[in-house]
Amino acid sequence: MIFSKKYYTIFVLTLVAFILFSYFFIDKTVAKYFLSNIPTYEHIGDILSIAGESHWYIGAGIIGFVFFKYYKKNRLYEQRFLFLLYINLFSGLISLLLKWIFSRIRPWGLREGHDEYGFLLFQNFDMGFVEKMKYHFVTLFESPTTYSSFPSGHTTTIVAVVIYLYILFPRYLYLWVSLAFVMAFSRVLANDHFVSDIFAGVIVGVLSTLFLYSKMKDKLEKNI
Predict the structure, then answer these.
(1) How far apart are CA 144 and CA 122, in angstroms?
(2) Which CATH number does the domain housing residue 71 bear?
(3) Domain range spanning residue 144?
(4) pLDDT tens-place string over residues 128-176
Protein backbone atom coordinates (compact mmCIF):
# COMPACT_ATOMS: atom_id res chain seq x y z
CA MET A 1 0.00 0.00 0.00
CA ILE A 2 3.00 2.34 0.22
CA PHE A 3 3.72 3.54 -3.29
CA SER A 4 6.62 5.44 -4.79
CA LYS A 5 6.59 9.22 -5.17
CA LYS A 6 6.13 8.65 -8.90
CA TYR A 7 2.77 6.93 -8.40
CA TYR A 8 1.63 9.51 -5.87
CA THR A 9 2.53 12.27 -8.31
CA ILE A 10 0.67 10.58 -11.19
CA PHE A 11 -2.35 10.05 -8.94
CA VAL A 12 -2.49 13.66 -7.75
CA LEU A 13 -1.89 15.16 -11.20
CA THR A 14 -4.58 12.94 -12.72
CA LEU A 15 -7.14 13.94 -10.09
CA VAL A 16 -6.18 17.61 -10.40
CA ALA A 17 -6.78 17.33 -14.17
CA PHE A 18 -10.20 15.79 -13.44
CA ILE A 19 -10.96 18.62 -11.01
CA LEU A 20 -10.09 21.31 -13.55
CA PHE A 21 -11.99 19.62 -16.38
CA SER A 22 -15.00 19.09 -14.16
CA TYR A 23 -14.93 22.67 -12.88
CA PHE A 24 -15.00 24.19 -16.36
CA PHE A 25 -17.12 21.67 -18.27
CA ILE A 26 -19.16 19.41 -15.96
CA ASP A 27 -19.95 20.91 -12.55
CA LYS A 28 -22.58 23.46 -13.52
CA THR A 29 -24.46 21.16 -15.88
CA VAL A 30 -24.65 18.29 -13.39
CA ALA A 31 -25.52 20.56 -10.47
CA LYS A 32 -28.33 22.30 -12.39
CA TYR A 33 -29.78 18.93 -13.41
CA PHE A 34 -30.04 17.69 -9.83
CA LEU A 35 -31.21 21.06 -8.56
CA SER A 36 -34.05 20.93 -11.08
CA ASN A 37 -34.96 17.42 -9.89
CA ILE A 38 -34.75 17.87 -6.13
CA PRO A 39 -37.88 15.81 -5.31
CA THR A 40 -36.42 12.83 -7.16
CA TYR A 41 -32.83 12.73 -5.93
CA GLU A 42 -32.13 14.94 -2.91
CA HIS A 43 -33.74 12.71 -0.27
CA ILE A 44 -31.86 9.68 -1.59
CA GLY A 45 -28.60 11.61 -1.47
CA ASP A 46 -29.29 12.80 2.07
CA ILE A 47 -29.93 9.27 3.31
CA LEU A 48 -26.84 7.80 1.65
CA SER A 49 -24.73 10.70 2.90
CA ILE A 50 -25.27 9.62 6.50
CA ALA A 51 -22.63 6.93 5.98
CA GLY A 52 -20.06 9.62 5.16
CA GLU A 53 -20.37 11.47 8.46
CA SER A 54 -17.07 11.18 10.28
CA HIS A 55 -18.46 11.06 13.81
CA TRP A 56 -19.52 7.43 13.27
CA TYR A 57 -15.94 6.37 12.60
CA ILE A 58 -14.35 8.66 15.17
CA GLY A 59 -16.72 7.26 17.78
CA ALA A 60 -16.05 3.68 16.66
CA GLY A 61 -12.31 4.33 16.76
CA ILE A 62 -12.42 5.71 20.31
CA ILE A 63 -14.73 3.01 21.67
CA GLY A 64 -12.83 0.20 19.97
CA PHE A 65 -9.45 1.50 21.09
CA VAL A 66 -10.52 1.89 24.73
CA PHE A 67 -12.29 -1.48 24.75
CA PHE A 68 -9.36 -3.48 23.38
CA LYS A 69 -6.72 -1.59 25.30
CA TYR A 70 -8.24 -1.61 28.77
CA TYR A 71 -11.09 -4.12 28.91
CA LYS A 72 -10.45 -7.02 26.59
CA LYS A 73 -6.80 -6.48 25.83
CA ASN A 74 -5.96 -7.28 22.25
CA ARG A 75 -3.06 -5.47 20.62
CA LEU A 76 -4.25 -6.34 17.12
CA TYR A 77 -7.65 -4.65 17.41
CA GLU A 78 -6.34 -1.85 19.58
CA GLN A 79 -4.05 -0.73 16.77
CA ARG A 80 -6.73 -1.16 14.12
CA PHE A 81 -9.17 1.07 15.95
CA LEU A 82 -6.48 3.61 16.75
CA PHE A 83 -5.62 3.80 13.06
CA LEU A 84 -9.32 4.29 12.23
CA LEU A 85 -9.49 7.16 14.72
CA TYR A 86 -6.34 8.83 13.42
CA ILE A 87 -7.25 8.73 9.73
CA ASN A 88 -10.63 10.32 10.38
CA LEU A 89 -9.27 13.08 12.59
CA PHE A 90 -6.34 13.83 10.28
CA SER A 91 -8.22 13.74 6.97
CA GLY A 92 -11.09 15.70 8.51
CA LEU A 93 -8.81 18.50 9.72
CA ILE A 94 -7.11 18.75 6.32
CA SER A 95 -10.48 18.85 4.57
CA LEU A 96 -11.74 21.56 6.92
CA LEU A 97 -8.61 23.67 6.42
CA LEU A 98 -8.94 23.44 2.63
CA LYS A 99 -12.60 24.38 2.84
CA TRP A 100 -11.67 27.56 4.73
CA ILE A 101 -8.87 28.42 2.32
CA PHE A 102 -10.74 27.87 -0.95
CA SER A 103 -14.21 28.84 0.34
CA ARG A 104 -16.16 27.51 -2.63
CA ILE A 105 -19.87 28.22 -2.74
CA ARG A 106 -22.01 25.10 -2.81
CA PRO A 107 -24.38 24.26 -5.68
CA TRP A 108 -27.01 26.19 -3.74
CA GLY A 109 -25.65 29.30 -5.46
CA LEU A 110 -27.21 28.05 -8.71
CA ARG A 111 -30.72 27.70 -7.32
CA GLU A 112 -33.67 29.55 -8.79
CA GLY A 113 -31.78 30.91 -11.77
CA HIS A 114 -28.91 32.39 -9.78
CA ASP A 115 -25.35 32.10 -11.07
CA GLU A 116 -23.17 32.24 -7.96
CA TYR A 117 -20.30 29.91 -8.73
CA GLY A 118 -16.65 29.53 -7.88
CA PHE A 119 -14.12 30.10 -5.11
CA LEU A 120 -13.81 33.17 -2.91
CA LEU A 121 -10.05 32.59 -2.99
CA PHE A 122 -9.96 33.35 -6.72
CA GLN A 123 -12.37 36.29 -6.71
CA ASN A 124 -12.20 40.02 -5.97
CA PHE A 125 -8.67 40.60 -7.23
CA ASP A 126 -9.60 44.22 -7.78
CA MET A 127 -9.44 44.62 -4.00
CA GLY A 128 -6.22 45.19 -2.10
CA PHE A 129 -4.73 42.12 -0.41
CA VAL A 130 -5.81 43.10 3.10
CA GLU A 131 -9.29 44.07 1.93
CA LYS A 132 -9.62 40.83 -0.04
CA MET A 133 -8.60 38.72 2.96
CA LYS A 134 -11.00 40.62 5.20
CA TYR A 135 -13.86 40.08 2.75
CA HIS A 136 -12.91 36.41 2.43
CA PHE A 137 -13.00 35.68 6.14
CA VAL A 138 -16.01 37.87 6.93
CA THR A 139 -18.03 36.11 4.21
CA LEU A 140 -16.87 32.72 5.44
CA PHE A 141 -17.68 33.64 9.06
CA GLU A 142 -21.18 34.80 8.15
CA SER A 143 -21.96 31.80 5.89
CA PRO A 144 -19.58 28.98 6.86
CA THR A 145 -21.79 26.20 5.53
CA THR A 146 -22.58 27.89 2.22
CA TYR A 147 -18.90 28.46 1.39
CA SER A 148 -17.52 25.04 2.29
CA SER A 149 -18.02 22.98 -0.84
CA PHE A 150 -14.40 22.16 -1.74
CA PRO A 151 -13.34 19.48 -0.98
CA SER A 152 -16.23 17.21 -0.04
CA GLY A 153 -15.76 16.26 3.60
CA HIS A 154 -18.08 13.27 3.36
CA THR A 155 -16.09 11.97 0.40
CA THR A 156 -12.84 12.49 2.29
CA THR A 157 -14.23 10.45 5.18
CA ILE A 158 -15.67 7.59 3.16
CA VAL A 159 -12.54 7.28 1.01
CA ALA A 160 -10.33 7.26 4.12
CA VAL A 161 -12.49 4.50 5.62
CA VAL A 162 -12.49 2.52 2.37
CA ILE A 163 -8.68 2.67 2.17
CA TYR A 164 -8.63 1.53 5.79
CA LEU A 165 -10.91 -1.42 4.98
CA TYR A 166 -8.83 -2.30 1.94
CA ILE A 167 -5.65 -2.38 4.03
CA LEU A 168 -7.30 -4.79 6.47
CA PHE A 169 -9.40 -6.79 4.00
CA PRO A 170 -7.81 -6.46 0.53
CA ARG A 171 -9.77 -9.34 -1.00
CA TYR A 172 -12.93 -7.20 -1.02
CA LEU A 173 -11.45 -4.40 -3.11
CA TYR A 174 -14.37 -4.18 -5.56
CA LEU A 175 -16.86 -3.98 -2.72
CA TRP A 176 -14.95 -1.13 -1.07
CA VAL A 177 -14.58 0.78 -4.33
CA SER A 178 -18.30 0.35 -5.08
CA LEU A 179 -19.23 1.64 -1.63
CA ALA A 180 -16.92 4.62 -2.00
CA PHE A 181 -18.39 5.51 -5.39
CA VAL A 182 -22.01 5.32 -4.21
CA MET A 183 -21.37 7.23 -0.98
CA ALA A 184 -19.32 9.92 -2.72
CA PHE A 185 -21.82 10.44 -5.53
CA SER A 186 -24.59 10.77 -2.96
CA ARG A 187 -23.19 14.23 -2.17
CA VAL A 188 -23.97 15.30 -5.74
CA LEU A 189 -27.47 13.80 -5.48
CA ALA A 190 -28.01 15.76 -2.28
CA ASN A 191 -27.06 19.01 -4.05
CA ASP A 192 -24.34 19.69 -1.48
CA HIS A 193 -21.31 19.29 -3.75
CA PHE A 194 -20.08 19.57 -7.30
CA VAL A 195 -18.39 16.68 -9.08
CA SER A 196 -14.98 18.35 -8.76
CA ASP A 197 -15.48 18.55 -4.96
CA ILE A 198 -15.75 14.77 -4.98
CA PHE A 199 -12.45 14.38 -6.84
CA ALA A 200 -10.80 16.72 -4.34
CA GLY A 201 -12.19 14.68 -1.46
CA VAL A 202 -10.73 11.53 -3.00
CA ILE A 203 -7.28 13.13 -3.07
CA VAL A 204 -7.46 14.18 0.57
CA GLY A 205 -8.89 10.87 1.75
CA VAL A 206 -6.36 8.72 -0.08
CA LEU A 207 -3.23 10.75 0.65
CA SER A 208 -3.98 11.44 4.31
CA THR A 209 -4.77 7.79 5.01
CA LEU A 210 -1.71 6.43 3.20
CA PHE A 211 0.47 9.05 4.90
CA LEU A 212 -0.65 7.86 8.34
CA TYR A 213 -0.31 4.25 7.24
CA SER A 214 3.31 4.94 6.29
CA LYS A 215 3.89 6.29 9.81
CA MET A 216 2.15 3.37 11.53
CA LYS A 217 3.12 0.69 9.02
CA ASP A 218 5.64 -1.22 11.13
CA LYS A 219 3.37 -1.29 14.18
CA LEU A 220 0.34 -2.28 12.14
CA GLU A 221 2.09 -4.98 10.15
CA LYS A 222 3.25 -6.67 13.32
CA ASN A 223 -0.38 -7.18 14.17
CA ILE A 224 -2.22 -7.42 10.86
Answers:
(1) 17
(2) 1.20.144
(3) 5-221
(4) 888 988 888 899 889 989 999 999 999 999 999 999 999 999 999 999 9
